[in-house]
Amino acid sequence: MIAGLDAPSGGQILIDGQDVTHRGPAERNVSMVFQSYALFPHMNVLQNVGYGLSVSGVSQAETTRRAQAAMDSVGLAGYDQRLPSELSGGQQQRVAVARSLVLEPSVLLFDEPLSNLDARLRRSMREEIRTLQQRLKLTVAYVTHDQSEALAVSDQIVVMDAGLIAQAGTPQQLYEDPHSEFVAGFMGEAMLFAGMADALGRVQVGPLTLQPQRTVAPGAVKVAVRPEAWQVVAGGVTPAGGTLDGTLLKTAYLGSLQELTLATPLGEIFVVSPDVQRPWRVGDTLRLSLAQAGVSVVAA
Q: How far is it, in rounded angstroms, from Cα 76 to Cα 271?
């Protein structure tokens, strides 16, 4: 709808303070980077980047100058004569970004631009997109299903559920203070547990007691707990909020982290521990407590 490719059923779309709701795609000064990049295979990089200018009647000399400047801004200087088939996935993505930037748009749209790249390249490209956005002071609307990607590149995140806004806010607000079960589950690997809030604002989850960050009304609640919020308690230590015993079912070493799956009275719990030196053994009984960070209370 922002690009003008679909008509809204209601409301307005404003760009630079102008109502563009009923304008066509060519009248909005909006550029889009597609998921598949949509590069012309028979054109070289320079021709791909300058295509929008050339069909808009811009002179050949000006098109070349602006296209090369856009290529420089995304690290493609010297790639003028390469064909898309001669480029890596990351380089093709940069061509698509340069082709959008050369039009000097008011809004730049990204449609899951990193989904075709491997994990390492995804991380480096999302950092480049963020740096580019900050340097050029662009307004960017970025669609992704990857929560870590959304957290890394955004100033504001809008979580959509069935076409409606479930919650909007900064990355930190959505991660640390989700307002619904859906948002809590979507923003990271939160597990939800039934709890009960008392008149003093404390929440009981099985044998554990916690003090939520937000005031909650007495009664049934849902508690969203992220894997990193669980802490394995050493013997002889009893945290103020109590402990939960569990039997270690599965363990996976990830270099800087250890993933643990435990059977507990609250069901199976997934835990991420930074203690990679400990000899974790399946069948061991572990005691868990909850940290303040990574725990949210939402409506039941």
A: 43
Tokens, residue 35: 């998921």
Q: Please tell me the distance from the alpha carbon of residue 25 to that of residue 44, in angstroms, as a whole number.
A: 25
Number of residues that this document lists for the chain? 300
Cα first-last separation, the chain: 34
pLDDT tens, residue order, the chain (300 aa): 999 999 999 999 999 999 999 999 988 989 988 888 889 999 999 999 999 999 888 999 999 999 999 898 888 989 999 999 999 888 898 899 889 888 888 999 988 888 777 777 788 778 888 888 888 888 999 999 888 889 889 999 999 999 899 999 999 999 888 888 888 888 878 888 999 999 888 899 999 998 887 788 888 989 999 999 999 988 767 788 889 999 999 999 999 999 999 999 999 999 999 999 999 999 999 999 998 778 888 876
Give me the CATH code for the 14-155 domain, please.
3.40.50.300
C-alpha separations of 186 from 5, 111, 190, 271 in Å: 27, 19, 8, 17
* Stretch(es) of the chain classified as CATH 2.40.50.140: 189-299
DSSP-assigned beta bridge partners for residue 298: 222
Reported pTM: 0.78
User: CATH number of 189-299: 2.40.160.20, 2.40.50.140, 3.30.70.20, 1.10.150.120?
Assistant: 2.40.50.140
Alpha-carbon distance of 102 to 294, in angstroms, equals 42
